[in-house]
Amino acid sequence: PLPQTPLLQVQDLGIRFGGLHAVRDVTASLQPGRITAIIGPNGAGKSTFFNLISGFYQPTSGRITFRGEDITRLRTHEVVGRGIARTFQTTTIYQELSVLDNAMIGHRVRTRAGLLDALLRTGRERRDEEESRAGALRALDRVGLAGQATLPAGALNQEGKKRVGIAMALASDPHLLLDEPAAGMNPEETVNLMGLIRDLVSGGLSVALVEHKMSLVMGLADDILVLHHGQKIAQGTPAHISRDPAVVEAYLGS
Ligand code: ADP
Ligand code: MG
């Protein structure tokens, strides 16, 4: 088969916090329409890697290219505007607001300047409101929460809250960065969530997800990127990765 144009490429990507090189010289490509898992022991630099891609941190070295465009110096809302949306390791949903309101906040963050604007709902026209509502309802439908739209988000179980977090990140066709989506979930909820991720990818999304438990991504990911002490130590299929001596060593030593 012909090689596809990568969705996302990072070249010699790095960031230092004082003396700590949290991400160091990482060169990697992520392909469209696939599930890429970023794994590695705690402190490997996985969340930092997402923070770099999504513009929360500015790299101290290297380049990030999304669909051929250099996005290295873009700010978070500009990255979101390009169609890259993320969730956080600790889900930030508004417990007291309805599921629909949460999804609408997510929609506004993507379509406007930023979170502050979304939260303040500064006097905008009805049309915007209706567009937000329609977008939010589509997102809720995609994550299987259409029937719970009017409930307070805080009333949902852990899995439901994760789904709200994903709905908040869903734009028309974004590429999702999910930071430890299964954190705090029981095995059954985890299986459900993995099913949701698979459905989203079948529907045309590309997903990159961070996970520190290697076993969780073995049956899910098409491609796995392994970080250790901020560096890429391996990338490949689950079968390839699980046999890689450097990966086995990193996990045994952690
Ligand atoms: P992971 O997600 O793989 O567990 P992180 O990316 O959160 O790891 O962290 C990698 C390293 O970078 C850790 O040593 C962490 O303490 C450090 N780090 C992350 N963010 C910051 C920051 N803003 N300031 C200083 N150190 C940081
Ligand atoms: Mg992390």
Descriptive overview:
The model is unreliable at 112-117 (pLDDT under 50). The protein is built from ten helices and ten strands. It has helices at residues 46-53, 76-81, 99-111, 115-120, 126-142, 158-169, 187-202, 214-218, 238-242, 245-252; strands at residues 8-17, 20-30, 35-39, 61-66, 69-70, 84-86, 175-179, 206-211, 223-228, 231-236. The longest helix is centred in the middle third of the chain and has 17 residues, at 126-142. Bound molecules: adenosine-5'-diphosphate (ADP) and magnesium ion (MG). Residues 17, 20, 22, 40, 42-48 line the site of adenosine-5'-diphosphate.
Write the layout of secondary structure elements.
Elements lengths: L7 E10 L2 E11 L4 E5 L6 H8 L7 E6 L2 E2 L5 H6 L2 E3 L12 H13 L3 H6 L5 H17 L15 H12 L5 E5 L7 H16 L3 E6 L2 H5 L4 E6 L2 E6 L1 H5 L2 H8 L2
Helix pairs in contact: 3-5, 3-6, 5-6, 6-7
The structure holds adenosine-5'-diphosphate (ADP) and magnesium ion (MG).
For the record, what CATH class of the largest domain applies? Alpha Beta
Name the ligand types.
adenosine-5'-diphosphate, magnesium ion
> How much is the average pLDDT?
86
CATH architectural name of the largest domain:
3-Layer(aba) Sandwich
Overall structural domain count? 2
Q: What is the CATH superfamily of the largest domain?
A: P-loop containing nucleotide triphosphate hydrolases
* Spans where pLDDT lies below 50 across 5 or more residues: 112-117
- Care to count the β-strands? 10
Name the structural class: alpha/beta
- The portion of residues forming beta strands comes to 15-25%
Taking Cα atoms only, what radius of gyration do you get, to the nearest Å?
A: 18 Å
Shape: globular
